[in-house]
Amino acid sequence: MEDVKKLYLIALCDDDERELDRIEHFLASYQDGKQEVEYKTERFSSAEAFLWKIRENGYLPDILLLDIFMSGKNGIEAAEEVRALGLDIPIVFLTTSTEYALKAYGVDAVQYLVKPLDDKRFFHAMDSAMGQIGKSRKNQIVIKVAGGIRQIQPNDIVYCESQKNYQILYLTKGEYRVRMTAGKLWEILKAFCQFGRCGRSYILNMDHIVLVEREKILMDDGYTIYIPRNKAAEFKKVYFAYYFDFQDGKV
Fold first, then answer.
1. Contact at 8 Å (CB) between 46 and 58?
2. 150 and 140 in contact (C-beta within 8 Å)?
3. HSE-up of residue 64 (Cα within 13 Å, Cβ side)
4. What residues contact 221, with CB distance under 8 A and at least 6 apart?
5. Which residues touch 202 (CB under 8 Å, ≥6 apart)?
6. How far apart are CA 225 and CA 161, in angstroms?
7. Other CB atoms closer than 10 Å to residue 169's CB: what's the count?
8. Does the pLDDT of residue 224 top 90, yes or no?
9. pLDDT (tens digit, 9 = 90+) per residue, 119-145?
10. Contact 63, 129 (CB under 8 A)
11. Are 229 and 236 in contact (CB under 8 A)?
12. CA-CA distance, 100 to 224, in Å (whole number)?
C-alpha cells in the first residue's frame, strides 16, 4: 500500500517569469528531501491577481512566497491586505533589497530573503514556514465568508445561530454571516470539545456560557438565548458533562 503524502499549496507571486521558474526549481529541490509531503504551486504575476483569487474564489495557500518590487501593488501592500483579511498564512519575502526588511516583520513575515537565492537560505525559510503551518493548523477554523475566507480561533466564537440557509457566527469581536447548513457547520465545530449543539438553531461555545436555566442560556457577551424547556434540559446535560470533565482534567 502506497503512503499517503500531505499536500501543501504554495502561492508564488512575482512579476518576473524567470524568477518564478527559479523559485519552482528551489521548491523541487526542497521536496526531494521531504518525501512525506507534496507541494502544488500556483503562480501569480501580480499582487492584484493573487488577492483577487483569495477574495473571489476563497483561495487559501499554505505558504506565500512573495516578491516585493512588482508593478502595481508591491509585496508589502499585498501582505498587509492578506493580514487585514484575517489570514495568518506564513509569508516568505523574496526580494532584491533589504529596504523593506523592517516592514516585512510588521506583517509577521517568516523570512526575508535577498536575491540571488541559494539552497541553504531557501530551505531554512521553508522549514520555518512549514513549522508555522503545523502550529496554526491545530487550532483554527477556516470559513468562507462574503469577500473571501477567514481563519478563526475556536474560542473567539461565542455562539452560532442558524437562519435558514445561513449561519451567523457571533464572535468576541464582530460577527460573520456564512452560507452553509447548520449540519455542515456542526461537522466543523464538533471537533472542538468546547462546542455543544442546542436544538437545531444554536451551537454554543460552552467556555462562554455564564448560566443555564430552564428556558434560557446566558452567554458572557451579555446575550440571552431563549429556547424550549426540553431543549434546555437536553443541553444542560451536555454542558455539565463538559464542565465536570473539564474540571477533572479529562478535556
1. no
2. no
3. 30
4. 158, 170, 172, 208
5. 159, 160, 161, 162, 225, 227
6. 10
7. 23
8. yes
9. 999 999 999 999 888 655 556 787 877
10. yes
11. no
12. 48
Residue 202 and residue 230: Cα distance in Å, rounded? 14
Starting at the edge strand found earlier in the chain, the sheet holding 6-13 runs 37-44, 6-13, 63-66, 91-95, 111-114
All 3 cell numbers of residue 248?
477533572
Measured CA to CA, the distance from residue 217 to residue 211 in angstroms comes to 6
pLDDT in tens, 14-66: 999 999 999 999 999 998 888 778 889 999 999 999 999 988 877 889 999 99
**The three grid cell numbers given for residue 101, joined into one nine-digit string:** 526588511
Please, are residues 43 and 12 in contact by the beta-carbon 8 Å criterion? yes
241 pLDDT band, cuts 50/70/90, is confident
Q: How many helices (H) and strands (E) does the chain have?
A: 7, 15
CA dist., res. 116 & res. 22, Å (int): 10
Which cell goes with 225? 438565548
What is the separation, in whole angstroms, between the first and last Cα of the chain? Answer: 35
Dist CA 134 CA 148 (whole Å): 23
According to DSSP, the residues that pair with 179 across neighbouring strands are 166
